[in-house]
Amino acid sequence: MQRLTAESVTLAYDRRVIAEDLSVAIPDNSFTVIVGPNACGKSTLLRALSRMLKPSGGRVLLDGQTIQSLPARQVARTLGLLPQSSVAPDGITVGDLVARGRYPHQGLLRQWSQEDERIVGESMAATGVAGLADRCVDELSGGQRQRVWIAMALAQQTPLLLLDEPTTFLDIQHQLEILDLCAELHETQGRTLVAVLHDLNQAARYATHLIAMRGGRIAAEGAPGDVVTAGLVERVFGVRARVIDDPETGTPLVVPLARRGGASSAPRASASGAAAGVTAAAS
Amino acid sequence: MLVDSPPEQSADRTAAASAPEPVRRHALRAAGLLLAVGVLALVCVASIAIGAKPVPVSDVWHGLFQNSGTGSDVVIRDLRVPRTVLGLLVGVALGLSGAVMQALTRNPLAEPGLLGVNAGASAAVVTAISFFGVTSISGYVWFALLGAGVVSVVVYLLGGSRGATPVRLALAGTAATAALFGYVNAVQLLDSAALNRLRFWTVGSLASADPATIGKVAPFLAAGVVLALLIVRPLNAMEMGDDTARALGAHINRTRVLAMAAVTLLCGAATAACGPIVFIGLMVPHLVRAVTGPDMRWILPYAAVLAPVLLLGSDVVGRMVARPSELQVGVVTAFIGGPVFIHLVRRKRMAQL
Amino acid sequence: MKAVKAVEAVRAAKAIRTPGGLSVRVDPRAVLAVLLLLAVALGVAVVLVGSGDFPMAPGEVVATLLGDGTAAQEFIVHDVRLPRVLVALLVGAALAVGGALFQSIARNPLGSPDVLGFAQGSSVGALTVIVLFGGGSFATAGGAMAGGLATGAAVYLLAWKRGVHGYRLVLVGIGIAAMLAGAIHYLVTKADLVDATRAVLWMTGSLDGRDWSHFWPLLAVTAVLIPLSLAYGRPLRMLEMGDDAAYALGIRVERTRAVLTGSAVLLTAVATAAAGPIVFVALSAPQLARRLTRSPGPNVAASAVMGAALLVVADWVATSAFGDRRLPVGVVTGVLGGVYLLWLLVTERKAGRI
Fold first, then answer.
1. How far is C349 from chain B (nearest CA, A)?
2. pTM
3. Do the record's keywords include Cell membrane (chain C) (predicted)?
């Protein structure tokens, strides 16, 4: 049973088509990571899954129903999103911002229940921002701010949580913190997470389910151990690499080949033949 | 911050790909500039010929070079020629100041009219007329310069100088304009003699042009033009961002001060001469950029030639549509420029808020 | 430990709960600010009713309002001064709420209706009536209403492109404002001097001669739209975090924006029709209110009372501070607006927030 699926969707901005006839199913209770080169449509797919973008063909299903046909609040209680760009209103405190995540559970006469209060506290504790509750969001560092936004998404208490490049602009320490946090949420709270990530090695380490995209198509999907191979890396990213076992976790680790002669300047020469089926569609 | 746009935007390489080798490109641009000068000459002739009393083109020539005191000759020498010359000068000023402002602020919507510089000059002139009893152009050109200067600095600061985004800057300018015109209205209200004089000036019109006005503003305009041309190269560097410009050896602060001074001189003098005129400084540099690409060394001369084409053209249109009366040029440019502006806003991906 | 601390911090924003599971959030500071401003607005209103050629002490005004005045007092209060002051209160509130909504939608403290072309639209409508048709004050108000609404619709439609984004709304509004300014200047040059003076007086914004017939339509519109705006305050607050974040929280972004833009345009148009485009109340009242309540978001209620208070204070200054000369209220708000812009320049720029 998969709660969130896309059925042969066509995704386009105005008339610029990003992906056509794309079908994806997000396995329940997975930590799914979408990877791919720039402009492959991975963020667009995430936007479609989170109903930010209405497909111009096909449909996105949440619990078996077209996501656009469901009431907005009901979706918001099932599926949360951490967008790439959010604006913290001027002078808002961390506590207030996280509390706004409770919006879909509130109403005009039910504005702030004890449950709201408890969940907001828990969300801040889970992301390690509880100590910052009274601080202004403007004053925080990039890593802290990202945690606050994640706390807000957590406070929404959705079984499904989508994250659009949650680690962009963060240094390596904060990247790992955020990803550890995601893994923990997935393991301890059983939530289904879908994230777009740039770093293939991080994706391979943290994901339970990996989707590799290129040119608006799914190039491969499955467990990272099965999916991440030298052939796939070359096919999807146009980079020749060795794939070895991560000495720390045993997951696949991609090591790009060293420059030898002019080899790296024309890495696609062999790829075009080997992966014609995939790359033809991509170009 | 843009939410509806594709997350990854493909670079626009068409210009680079289709560009011929530099020599030919220069030749093409030079030829284009020559063509533009030709168009300008035609518009000037039209501006002299067309009006409440139409003058045949042959008589235009006669009036210009063999003045013999006929009715058309008088109209031409006393009314049409000064009007055309003033339009030419003001057009050059507005076009150049728009181009400089857009480069300085790295903002495609920067324009002296929208950013309140003209309104600042207006408020100062109104003050001069109403409170200091100044009646001649030679008196209030100084006030106009002062007003333009103060407002351009205030708007630049209010718009968040370094962190300025198109929206912020435009809002700051419009808010300043609203405040200044509120003041202008209040003054007019308390002094109906001033209102009677001012209402024809605040609309932006070339109708009152005479040789004395031209003589008074020309030196300021010339100084502004020279300043603008002097900072072409550092402006080119600054369009890539302050840090890059600094890395390329440009003097950021000096360039900024000079650019503001140029804009102030050009707009202040132009506004003193014919009242606030909007959108010329916005439209022309955009049009020019489409032809020349982003090189300021070409943008400025093109803007200097094409802006008067637009201004004089608008003036001619204004004289034609409402015969025998006329629509002031400021009204015409507002109605041509408004749609262009909205089109730009809709087409551009104006990032960040 | 940390969780406990966080819970306590959040609890600072108090809530009233019933055993039945209902709960309403109450920010004590905001409530206090609203009550305070309301007191100021009503107090100054009473003073304003008492001032003029036939001065009355505040006590007498209150007595007259309660039905204990002399016949002359009754006439002065009920037929002359009270409607004017009530119009002032409502116009101030309507302008301020319109401003609060727009600033919130535009996510910019400068994005208010008088900057975005609506005031200019109303002016063009009113001036068309004054200059081209020589209409009286009612026709002028009608023209202003029509002009404001048409401009609102035009801005919204022109800004529409797969949804209306705050920044596009702002920029299209600025473009329209500049165009309409051209039309206004043209109309002023077309008029004879008497009409031109009338036009400029109208554009400055004045409360002179406003009576009950101005009050009732204003009351009808504000009585519906201000509560509506209050009800939409919560989704609007979510909208300030960006469209994506608001979407994710289950806000119907476009509908919320359409409803709120519509009511902001209507409020602005009806207020402008009643008293002319009084500048800067819409721009400054929401920001001043926000600084009093210290809470982010549109602060609709606080803005409304702040606007009402600002306008009666400005009117009081305009009518009594310059000796015999009674200025139109718009002159005073205009000057205040200039000061406000400078203040914004100094404070906000430091915070890098404009």
1. 6
2. 0.80
3. yes
